Amino acid sequence: MSLKLIKSAFPKRRFFFYYLETILTHNKTTFIKPFEPFFRRFYKSQIMFKIRVLLCFVVIFSCSKDDMVIAQQLEETPEPQVPQAQNTPNPEASNQTKQFKILALGDSYTIGQSVCSTCRFPVQLKDSLKNNIENSEITLDIIAQTGWTTTNLKEAISNNNPSSNYDLVTLLIGVNNQYQGKAFSNYETEFPELLNKAISLAKGNLNQVIVISIPDYAYTPFGQSRSNPSTISSELDTYNAFAQNHASNRNVTFINITDITREGLNDPDLVASDGLHPSQLAYTKFVERLLPVSIEKLN
After folding, report:
1. In this structure, are residues 62 and 70 in contact, taking their beta carbons and an 8 Å threshold?
2. Distance in angstroms (rounded) separating the CA atoms of residues 244 and 290
3. Where in the chain are the domains?
4. How many CA atoms lie within 13 A of 94 on its CB side?
5. pLDDT digits (tens, 9 = 90+) for 257-280
6. Partners of residue 214 on adjacent β-strands
7. What is the CATH number of domain 97-298?
8. Integer CA distances (angstroms), 151 to 104, 144, 202, in order
């Protein structure tokens, strides 16, 4: 760096530099000669000071600018997107057929006396479940017969010896105990035994069992021909109350359909052609109540 350039950088000290230049260049005065080292050091120190100051400013501003650029780049740089795990549907799993087994235990109301084989409530329930549960295959077994009491049903189950792998078991029994004048204590003993058996047949899972109330045949032409229609209804209420309380104590689902059959006099279409048993329409109304609960249990 030339002295001329340094003088131009420090205009306020031009007289000092002029005097200094004269002394250092010409050495004309012997008085000044001894002070030459001092002037030279002073001269150099001033230059180095200015250079250092300039370098500091250059470094500071360059760093600040770089930092600003880097910060801006960091702000503008989007965060890497972590790919979200997606549950890819398995076509084979979705198309896999679901197998269900249903067992219906009871008497004439279960077997569907005086209606077609596809009109009885267990078959209507099976068909409705198949229509409402996608890719389902349902097998239905019925152990029931007209005139059976709780004693007859117990014996029939023992003789048939069904497997204990059913996904859903329904139990509707007791009307013939009342109709045949059996002691109510017999029902109090045998209904709990039948419920225990139904649970064991449902893989031991009480949540897969549904107890259905006894229909009231007093509201049919046959019941009205009896001398005591009101007594029939009262006694059936006693049977149903016991079954409901016992099922509730065991945390087993109880579905009431008795009120549907008590519309039989107002709506003759609810009564089968024999004037005693429920019709196909009545059984359809049974299934309307059974279906949502059954779907929930099977799912």
Report:
1. no
2. 15
3. 3-76, 97-298
4. 5
5. 999 999 999 999 999 999 999 999
6. none
7. 3.40.50.1110
8. 16, 12, 21
